[in-house]
Amino acid sequence: MCGIISYIGNSDALQVLLKGLKCLEYRGYDSAGIAIGDKTHPFQVIKAVGRVENLSQKVAQIKPAGNLGLGHTRWATHGGVTEVNAHPQVSYNGKIILVHNGVIENSATLKSLLEGKGITSKSDTDTEVLANLIAFHYESLSALPQEQRFSESVRVSLLEIQGTYGLAIICTDCPEELIGARKSSPLILGVQKDGFFLASDVSAFAGHTKEVVFLSDNEMVHIHGNHYQVQDLNNGVLTPVVQTIDWDVNFADLGSYKHYMQKEIFEQDIALKNTLLGRFSKDGSSAHLGGLQMSPHELRQVDRILLLGCGTASYACRVGEYLIERYARIPVEVECASEFRYRNAPLDKNTLVFVVSQSGETLDTLGALHEARRKGFRSLAITNVVGSTVARESDGGVYQRSGPEIGVASTKAFTGQICTLAMLALYLGRMRDMSFSEGCDFVQALQALPELVHEVLEKCDEPMRQIAHKYANYQHCFFLGRQILYPIAQEGALKLKEISYVHAEAYPTGELKHGPIALIDETMPTVILASDPSMLQKNISSMMEVKARKGKVIAIGVEGAEIPKKAYDDAIFLPKVHDAILPIITALPLQLFAYYVALERKCDVDKPRNLAKSVTVE
Ligand code: F6R
Q1: Structural domain boundaries, residue 559
Q2: DSSP label at 184?
Q3: Gap from CA of 323 to ligand 1 centroid (Å)
Q4: 158 near 181, Cβ under 8 Å?
Q5: Centroid of ligand 1 to alpha carbon of 36 (angstroms)
Q6: Is position 613 annotated as part of the catalytic site?
Q7: Does residue 591 lie within any of the structural domains?
Q8: CATH of the domain at 510
């Protein structure tokens, strides 16, 4: 949710922080702040409500300097969106300055304990309580040698707190030291010859270094001058694993696009090409997914699959359910990860669990992964972010390789997840009843997908813009889809809600008459997904039912399957495709619809209100 960037080294920290915060803004954008200083420059804390741009303007007036700094962009949890509540938070005695991502669950108890010692807070945040706690321990540990005192005060404080944290902390008495710590909230150390970075996402120091250490839960890193040490909270020194990551430094470049969401919609062809690259068997009849770390023999023993994810990822899981059940004939259950983690569902012993998460950091999905593993189930991951917590804590999996997704509303990650699940259905299907020729057809459909996606986007862009213009002022919208297209309808409704704040609901088309039809009148447009030719007549009947009640119908049809003109007000016709890729192709016009409606309504497409890209709190 919140974004952290911090730097210590030979360079000026300010530019590193501001550039990093810009990259992290997708994680939270209600306020931002920095702290900066060093041996010769007293530490200054500068904060601003609103976007990083507001902070930059303030910083330009003040011109703070120093080689050590913290930066934070906030998505509020404790306390409203004010400058006082923005991070960095400073302790009561001004010595400890920190930025935090997560929630300190026992902050109320700690706050009253500190108040009993005369230490009060100025903000409403749980973070300030932690800063005060560390400062309190720092004062009490005055007998310790100075080089141990700061890190020891952090360590003992972390042992007292409950909750989640990604932290970067400085002590004004120790201008050559920077401490980071994590628990259920990502924190990555970037290692350079003459400096170090701590960030909640590698994108924050992209272009500076590719050498990184992914901290694990309950680990602390203490950077002192040119050295760093990773330790656990029991003072055990750990051997860090330095990894070299591969990234494209141009990913944050908008090019000719106006918004990241638009860019990410239109780069789905390339993203899908990458998802598919090198993942087909030599005979062209199956997929090749080595990352699963399971032999064909082990995969044959699987009786049931459980797919877990949140939000958009949960809809990808629902599409996966249809694909795997249809092509591999393995029963699949899907559950929202946020529900599964607390439900204690009975599971068959030969169940294989998959968690699906673009960011690989969603706390609810991680909770579900931990729960499944605790019960002893083999738990694999489909994720986009290499080295993410989900990737590191699962028993194996598949990277979707969609490339960084910056727009808060997921688009290319969604189709990448479906594409990965389609390959999984093919792979498992070929181990069971799917014939060689069916497998070859499936592979050919997947291979043709990137080009098809490109064509459909080109073809639908302008018509969807016009349709969106027509419907942008409606306050409600229904999305209907049958079978595998029902989760696509759900995703279409979610996209519209998220970025244009239009109330949207999705139903299986056949459910319309069982209640929701009561809401249909001339103020209620209904998007009906009718791109599955086998359901054409049923879908036409549903359209007629809506039209008979003066509702507006936007039909997503398929070329060659005629829909009478009187059944719809507006329509788009997609090419007829293999069933396995139908959900991806059908999702495309819905993404464009949401995008253009949001533009018409003058909404902030890439940073919709109340949302953040990576949901690392409960
Ligand atoms: C919607 C959206 C969210 C995420 C959800 C899970 O556009 O982006 O619903 O899909 O928060 O996120 P990941 O996939 O990162 O676990």
Answers
A1: 260-600
A2: B
A3: 21
A4: yes
A5: 33
A6: yes
A7: yes
A8: 3.40.50.10490
Say whether both 208 and 292 belong to one domain.
Answer: no
Out of 261, 393, 410, 412, mutate this one to test ligand 1's pocket (max ligand atoms within 8 Å of CB): namely 410
Tokens 């702040």, located at residue: 33
Residue 456's Cβ-side half-sphere holds a number of Cα atoms within 13 Å equal to 33
**pLDDT, tens digit, 9 for 90 and up, residues 432-488:** 999 999 999 999 999 999 999 999 999 999 999 999 999 999 999 999 999 999 999
The answer to whether residues 366 and 393 touch, using CB atoms and an 8 Å cutoff, is yes
Q: Which atom of ligand 1 is nearest to the CA of 410?
A: 7
pTM: 0.84
Domain for residue 607, yes or no? no
Contacts of 346 (CB under 8 A, 6+ apart): none
Taking the CA of residue 452 as centre, how many other CA atoms within 13 Å lie in the half-sphere pointing to its CB? Answer: 20
> Is 440 in the active site?
no
Hey, whose CA ends up nearest to atom 7 of ligand 1? 409
Ligand 1 lined by 313 (C-beta under 6 Å): yes
| Candidate from 358, 388, 402, 591 with most ligand 1 atoms within 8 A of CB, to mutate | 358
Cα torsion 330, 335, 337, 341 to 10°: value is: -100
The per-residue pLDDT for 522 is 95
Edge-first strand listing for the sheet containing 89-90: 89-90, 96-101, 165-171, 177-183, 219-224, 227-232, 237-238
**Cβ 312 under 6 angstroms from ligand 1:** yes
